[in-house]
Amino acid sequence: MANPNSRKNNPQANMALKEHLREFKNRVIKSAVATVLGAIGGFFLYMPFIEAIKEPLDEVNARQGREAILNYANVQSSFSIMVTVSLYIGLVLAAPVWLYQLWAFITPALYKKEKRYALGFIFSAIPMFIIGLITAWICLPAAVYALTAFNPEGTSNIISADVYIPFVVKFMVSFALSFVIPVILVGLNFMGILRGRTILKAWRWVVVFVATVAAMTAPGTDVMTMFYLAAPLLFFFFLAIFICIMHDKRKDKKLAKLAAGMDSDQLNRATSPEELDQLGRVEENDSAKY
After folding, report:
1. Which residue from 5, 39, 148, 237 lies 20 to 30 Å from 84 (Cα-Cα)?
2. pLDDT tens digits, residue range 206-215?
3. What is the DSSP letter of 4?
């Protein structure tokens, strides 16, 4: 018996609301199971993670000659923080699963061109997110050292773990999202929502924003850390502008050819030298009239 929900028998991928809810529930359950399994693995990675994020505090002790320690405020805080961090790690480890489940849920509602754009966004955003995480990890020691340098002489930094760990997580996620912004701009441009010239007009504000973020990360005399952050952000931003402008030019040429009455075969065919020469002569004749 033929499946009524197959792509052949149901090319528009139409589903009843009940079927949508059932599919959504199944995909949420699969994502949750993957996250829980990842969190179990996160329990084993918890101690190495804590040791790694404590290194900037150890560096403060060595470079500034004063005490900077990670403090657990009460009896249950160490366990609750371990559970929270393990869930964060599990969410990251399960990312391929829940991203696929999200993709599989929304794909039937997309056209072929939209699927291409969505796939391009996912495969571009994930590497950029990882690059942002790596950059944040490199800049974290300098940020911690600079922010604790404002302590008065003879004082110590007894930092609560339930404050320090969210600070590290937010610090890294903020940097990672900053690296995804150029991908989002390109995606909005390809969907026809934002033109490249419009983005280019705001370049001064972007430079100020990037410089401010980099300066907050590496205040004082640590210019190289500021450069390491600002340089890739600006590079990817202007690369996104270039891609958007080139896409706009190609799109405008296609629209101009469509307005001239060309069909799809003529539209995809390269312009011949004779046609280019004819276009040049037409422009000369038009300019001669005026």
Report:
1. 148
2. 788 777 766 6
3. T
252 within some domain:
yes
Three-class DSSP category at 246? helix
206 neighbors 260 (Cβ within 8 angstroms): no
CB contact at 8 A, 56 and 144: yes
Residue 4 lies in a domain: no
Per cent of the chain over pLDDT 90 is 2
What are the DSSP calls for 31-76, one per residue?
HHHHHHHHHHHHHHHHHHHHHHHHHHHHHHHHHH-S-EEEE--STT
For residue 260, tell me if it sits in a domain.
yes
Q: How far apart are CA 215 and CA 24, in angstroms?
A: 44
Q: Which of 165, 163, 244 is nearest to 202 (CA)?
A: 244
Give the integer Cα–Cα distance in Å for 146 and 52.
18
Predicted confidence at residue 263, as pLDDT, reads 57
pLDDT at residue 272 is higher than 60: no
Contact 85, 165 (CB under 8 A): yes
Cβ distance 84 to 50 under 8 Å? no
User: How many folded domains does the chain comprise?
Assistant: 1
What pLDDT is recorded for position 54?
A: 85
Residue 260 · residue 215 · CB < 8 Å:
no
Distance separating alpha carbons of residues 212 and 36, to the nearest angstrom: 38
Classify residue 183: in a domain, yes or no: yes
Q: Which is nearest to 266 in space by CA: 253, 278, 279, 277?
A: 253
The alpha carbon of 162 is separated from its chain's Cα centroid by a whole number of angstroms, namely 26
Q: Single out the residue of 240, 278, 270 nearest to residue 254, CA to CA.
A: 270
Task: Name the packing angle between helices 203-217 and 223-259 (round to 10°).
Answer: 160
Closest Cα to residue 69, out of 79, 61, 81? 61
Q: Per-residue pLDDT for 274 more than 70?
A: no
